[in-house]
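User: Hey, my collaborator sent me this sequence without any context and asked if I could get a structure. I don't really work with proteins. Can you help?
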Amino acid sequence: MAGALTRPRLRAAGLALPLVAFIGVTFVVPLATMLLRSVYDPVVADALPDTVALLREWDGETDPGEAVYAAAARELLQAREARTIGRGREPRQPDSRGAAEHARPQRAAAAGGPRRSLASSADRHRRRLGRPVDVARH
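Assistant: No problem. I've predicted the 3D structure and written it out in structure-token form, which is a compact way to encode the shape of the chain:
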């Protein structure tokens, strides 16, 4: 009797196993990888070695102390000059603004409010790169 019940259960498990494996590979593994990358970034540890060493000695309860802040400021300035930190993994395009930024000036104009460009810094950046600026937007 026990052997008769075990066989259908094994068959059901054998049918469900490919689905569980597929979900694990396509959903759980990428999610776990993304969560790990959001917490661990070796770029910061490589760019700020003195700061990280001082923070390891810190107890976490009190203020870290002036030495930590001085080391962080010094190393951030060095990293900025060397351009080793502050770069995104994927370079942003200067003209890649969200739909919300395009809609805000239009809503303000429709409401009779001042039509101020929310993307003036992006326009300056486009001019610096020698790209045309959409004048009809202003």
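In plain terms: Confidence is low (pLDDT under 50) at residues 112-119. You can pass these tokens on to your collaborator as they are.
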